[in-house]
């Protein structure tokens, strides 16, 4: 099992942090690369669309899960 790592990012001028296991972080990086975005830009995009009652770390994990499910369906 992968340990959770805390990371920091600046979103719209505001510094925040999120915690992800390495496999989620690696896949998030793959999604960003596939979309030709920086990781920070992808995190900001996900942050901007998440429900306010969902924390950022959970929203990032759910985004990776959705991406993986769509890939498996192809």
What do you see in this structure?
The protein has 3 helices and 2 strands. With 74 residues, the protein is an alpha+beta fold. It has a two-stranded antiparallel sheet. Helix 1 crosses helix 3 (56-73). The longest helix is centred in the C-terminal third of the chain and has 18 residues, at 56-73. It starts with a strand and ends with a helix.
Count, helices: 3
Mean pLDDT: 93
| Biggest beta sheet attributes | 2 strands, antiparallel
Write down the overall geometry. globular
Distance between the termini: 28 Å
Key features of this structure:
single chain; 74 residues; alpha+beta; two-stranded antiparallel ribbon; 2 strands; 22% strand; globular
Quickly describe the structure.
The protein has helices spanning 22-34, 39-49, 56-73, and strands spanning 4-11, 14-21.
Topology:
Layout: E1 4-11, E2 14-21, H1 22-34, H2 39-49, H3 56-73
Antiparallel strand pairs: 1-2
């Amino acid at each position: 099992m992968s340990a959770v790592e805390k990371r920091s990012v600046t979103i719209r001028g505001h510094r925040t942090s999120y915690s992800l296991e390495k496999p989620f972080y690696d896949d998030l990086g793959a999604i960003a690369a596939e979309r030709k975005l920086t990781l920070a830009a992808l995190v900001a995009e996900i942050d901007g669309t998440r429900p306010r009652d969902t924390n950022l770390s959970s929203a990032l994990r759910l985004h990776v899960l959705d991406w993986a499910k769509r890939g498996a369906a192809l």
